[in-house]
Design brief:
- The protein is mainly α.
- The protein has one domain.
- The chain is 76% helix and 0% strand.
- It is built from four helices and no strands.
- The longest helix is centred in the middle third of the chain and has 16 residues.
- It starts with a helix and ends with a helix.
Length: 78
């Protein structure tokens, strides 16, 4: 049995035993997932557009990718 089949069975078993509060949580998640468009929200697209314009107007203000990755590795112990 592959992992997704096992996970589906586990979720089905859990739902069969879930109380009303858990069912309402699952329903909220499903409703939210079904109501959202796939892809970026308008707000996220605006943020990315703004950051792109900032980069295009001042490309030297950023930092090299390797420096960025090294900072993340140091900060998160990766």
């Amino acid at each position: 049995m592959d992992a997704s089949v096992k996970l589906r069975k586990k979720i089905h078993d859990f739902i069969d035993e879930a109380d009303d509060r858990m069912l309402q949580i699952f329903n909220a998640i499903i409703s939210k997932e079904n109501s959202e468009e796939k892809g970026l929200t308008k707000e996220h697209q605006e943020i990315l557009d703004k950051r792109l314009q900032e980069h295009l107007s001042s490309p030297e203000s950023g930092k090299p990718w390797t420096d960025f990755v090294n900072e993340l590795k140091k900060e998160y112990g990766l």
